[in-house]
Structure formats: structure tokens, C-alpha cells
Amino acid sequence: MKKMRNIILAIGLAIVMTSCYTYTFNVGDGPQTGVVLTERNHYVLYGLAAISISNPAEMAGGAEHYSVTIEHTIMDGILNALTGGLYTPTTTTVRR
Fold it and tell me: Average pLDDT by consecutive 10-residue portion of the chain (96 residues)?
């Protein structure tokens, strides 16, 4: 019984210790018009091999001032957990 409690505690601790990451950077003076575009990046094998990656410069459509946010959202984390890390998406958001 004590061993089962320790296993449940370890699993609960692993779930609580996970987090989402967010990386944001500005190009030029940052967003000016309020236009927001979002695309998903597709990776496999815990993010080691890329299948499809968005291009923030293309998403900005030639704008000189925009911000880019690349994040591992809750939904991305759920998809990662459901596939056991075989599919690991991230989300790219460009604000012009």
C-alpha cells in the first residue's frame, strides 16, 4: 500500500511540475495594427524532429513592425501527453 501511495505521489508531482513555455520577441517597434495570425508547428519524438514549422516573417506579410510569440499551450501539452511525446506541437502567434 505504501508503494502504491509513493507511485501516485510521484505521478502527481510530475504532473504539477510541468509547465507551458512562452518565448516572445519584437521585430522593429512591435505590433502596430492589431492583426493577429496563429499557426501550429508540428514536431515528433519529443520535439527532436520537425515536420512543419511556421515562418513568422511570412506570417507578418512583409510588415516591418510585429511581435512573435512561440508557446507550448495547454492544448499542445495535452496532445503531447496523449501521444506520449511522439507528437509535440507548439503554437506561433504573430501580432502586426
Answer: 84 68 86 89 89 91 91 86 88 93
Domain-located, residue 65: yes
- Residue 76's nearest CA partner among 34, 37, 35, 47 is 47
Contact 71, 22 (CB under 8 A): yes
| pTM for the model | 0.73
Instruction: At 57, list the grid cell.
Output: 516573417
Asked whether residue 8 is domain-assigned, the answer is no
Non-local CB neighbours of 19 within 8 Å, separated by 6+ positions: none
